[in-house]
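Entry type: protein chain
Record version: 2
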Amino acid sequence: MSTLSLFNTSSDQAGFRLNYMEVYNWGTFNEHVFRIHPQGNNSLLTGANASGKSTFIDALLTLLVPAKKDRFYNQSSGVDKKGDRTEETYVLGHYGNIQNEGEHSTSTQKLRGKNCYSIILASFSNTDLRNITLFQVRWFNNGELKRAFGLAHATLNISDDFADFDAKGNWKKRLNNQYNTQSKRIIEFFDGPMDYAERLAEQFGMRSTTALSLFNQVVGVKVLDDLDEFIRHNMLENRDAESEYLQLKDSFLTLMDAKTNIEKAKEQIAQLTPIDELAKQIQQIQSNLNQCNQYKELGVYWFTQKFVELANNELDKLNDELTVQQIELKRLNHRKSELDNQKTDLMVQIKSDEVGSQIQNLINKIAQLNQSRQQCMDKLQTSQSNATKDNNG
């Protein structure tokens, strides 16, 4: 795998390289989209004085170093002119001063008023065919300069993607609806320069945003007096040794407290483990007891249900026997009826027969004689009883 380097002169072995850059209403580039197209190669930007070379470089510097405190414009003009250009002068298109007639003061000439807007955009790509487009939009609202920052994971251009700009923010909603979906975000918008700078550094593989400040320093470097001093102030992170020591000390004390607490907790655990085991045993016994009580309560219902089942079975059995007995009773009643009918027939026949009549008379006489006999026996017994009383008397 080849090592990619931003400073490699071959675009096939370099990291992210500038593909093209566009400006609209930036400095003296007025009312039209102006583009440079390096196509990832090292390029030389040349032109006559005041042709806009520094203006284009400052636009690129603005895209890559978004924090105002980390950059200054027009570095090629020397230290004395570092403050003569600002974002506002670039947006309004300042290009010179004229002296008012009859006055000692001068007024600034500008190409645009505060009803304008300005867009700068640069697209970068690498050998992995990844494209990153940085863009910034500026406009005025109630006389105050407003800024919007964005990063797109695709190639954008001012003519197609920012043609319908409006200060109300509908341009941003249109880009969001056009490029972004719920599952994939092509364009990212940022509320301020710091979030934008951190995302830019992350996408370009920088260790921190300090690299952006370093880029601002090397853009206009002409004479390097002391390399060590330059590296110390611009390439090394500022570190507060005392604060780090105090933080390290606090961390050490925190770790010692944690170690003491851990050892204390281990000892507590060792002493509480037997109690915990007993508690678990008691809990298990209590659980078994509760289960037995539950089974006991359920047993009453189970036996009751079993008794009901047996009673129902016995009832069904008795009902079956009752049905059989009823059938047998019905048969016997039927047989009794037949015998009664036969008896009646025999009685009728006996009464109508002479021998039967004599037999009946004899039966009647026997009954009368038995009655008379009984009366005699009663009288005899009474007489004997009276005779016995007399003898005793």
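Comment: The longest helix spans residues 241-352.
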